[in-house]
Specification:
Elements: E1 6-9, H1 22-32, E2 37-40, H2 48-58, E3 65-69, E4 79-80, E5 83-84, H3 85-98, E6 102-107, E7 126-129, H4 133-145
Parallel strand pairs: 1-2, 1-3, 3-6, 6-7
Antiparallel strand pairs: 4-5
Helix pairs in contact: 1-4
Length: 153
Amino acid sequence: MKTYDVVLFSGVYREFSVKPLAIYRLASHLRKNGYTVKTVNHLHKFSEREFDNLIDKFVSDKTKLIGVSCTVLKSFNNDFFGVTDEVLKSRIERIKNKFDIKFVLGGGQVNNTSQRYLKNYNFFDYVSVGQGENVLLSICNHVFYGTGIITTT
């Protein structure tokens, strides 16, 4: 069982089957800076049991950050990658109850205007707005080493 410093989850908009490239750019940037990273696509397709098996397989006490991409977010009100807000919140809470892990929400659809909706998503510890390579690296450095967080890309 290999575990990772960072695990990044993305969905794929249900009408399309292409993989989102941004998650791979983020993972590559983190790897170039010394972090081990696992990417997991199709978040909406996993049953609760399958999701728990993924967590058991890739997440450990070594893992300090999990990223959730919202680049395919349908709405901030009901539907995250085809799973309800309640399912997403339940999944995050189960992980947080088991491990000391921080969660970051990021992606092109998170912007200053939409942040008012994020009050409903208070289970996220960090939010990355826009292009996130440097911001996500900064959050990782903060979580792992206590450094400051940059606030711009």
